[in-house]
Amino acid sequence: MAGQDIQLHDTTLRDGARPAGRVLPVDDRLAVARCLDGLGVGFIEGGRPGATAADTEFFRRAAGELRLTGAVLVARGAARAPGASAATDPRVRELLAAGTPVVTLAAVSDSRRVERARGTNLAENLAAVGGTVRHLVRAGRRVLLDAEHFFDGHRANREYALEVVRTAAEAGAETVVLCDGAGGRPPDEVGAVVSDTLHGTGVELGVHCRGGAGRAVAGSVAAVAAGARQVRGTVCGYGRRRDADLLSVAAQLIVTRGAAALPGGSAVLGAAVAESAGRAVEVVSWQVGADPAGGGQDRSSASVLLRVDGVATAATASGGGAVEALDRAVHRALDPVLPGVRRLRLTGHLARVPAGHAGTAGTARVVASFADGDGRLDTVGVAADTGAAFLRALLEAVRRLPARERHGDGRTAERRPAAVAYGPTLTEPTLTGTD
What we know:
Blueprint: E1 7-10, H1 26-39, E2 43-45, H2 53-65, E3 72-78, H3 90-97, E4 102-108, H4 111-118, H5 122-138, E5 142-148, H6 150-156, H7 158-171, E6 175-179, H8 187-201, E7 205-208, H9 215-225, E8 230-233, H10 246-257, H11 267-274, E9 280-290, E10 300-308, E11 311-319, H12 322-334, E12 344-352, E13 364-372, E14 375-383, H13 386-399, H14 403-407, E15 425-426, E16 433-434
Parallel strand pairs: 1-2, 1-8, 2-3, 3-4, 4-5, 5-6, 6-7, 7-8, 9-15, 9-16
Antiparallel strand pairs: 9-10, 10-11, 12-13, 13-14
Helix pairs in contact: 1-2, 5-7, 6-7, 8-9, 9-10, 10-11, 12-13
């Protein structure tokens, strides 16, 4: 297990957007994808092209606007319809039109569901799986197959469930993900089924567990111990089916099993758990008001009092609005102490406060975008008001600066292989102030 590469596959933009009443506009989807990339996941599943206008628009805009540094964007679809051709099936064509280098293909692996859910027989279901995978591979796509309800299928008809895995792999799928559709599978059963499938097929496997009370996380860790190479889940377990919390899974793998080599940029996530050499930055107080020297224009002034490793630093600045003034004040306070922070430049922000909820704890949300040299950082802050929310977003960007950039002198922190030293460790203060 030690040294084994584990792939983290995030489905927040699909599963995390499913709860009733939760709608993610395309701008928010793009911002979430950039944040996920910053966390260090290897794959970001963006949704089903063609399922809704928003899904299709997301992939269209992502092709020109989304620049990922480590993760790979994934579009999701399904095997061709029974009796159809993969080349003419509308869903398969939408999947290819999304233009992502990797696609996830959903397929039924429970023999009892083939007739009920697909309206076909076992042989035709296998033909649809193999034919669709081959078509996508020939079109230049890397294919990940979701073997849906696999654990139920393995229990009911083991040989057929294994045959779905073999068929997909022989057609060119690089990984087959065993999905616990109903959720709540005990960890020992998850491990046993993964082990049996691995030895029965020799195919590279992943797992997508669900279930409350920590079962999804425990099942994911058990699957890795049994030989799975990819783990799927959502940030904080968001989703109506209690998906595995991918951050908790990563922490468990890094801390308890030594799996620190997480490809696709995930070594950064590992460093956040494995190393704590960053400097502590705390917001003591802040204030925003009208700029008396504004010359009749809409300008604001801001003052901040911060502590870096317990040492106070304060500054005041003005700008064309509360966010710009706070950004400048924080830079004036931190740049002399942490010179690398100078490279962060605010390029835009989006603030949202639900109507009638101003001043309520945790209701203001600010999505902030920063230029980081040649790169880009997108962060999110949530607090009672937009000023505090922006401060959280800004300090999260500071935290994500690698140590050599934070110090600003070309030094690099001593580190273990495949780890990246992080910037300052931020406290979770109650941000007091006025705006």
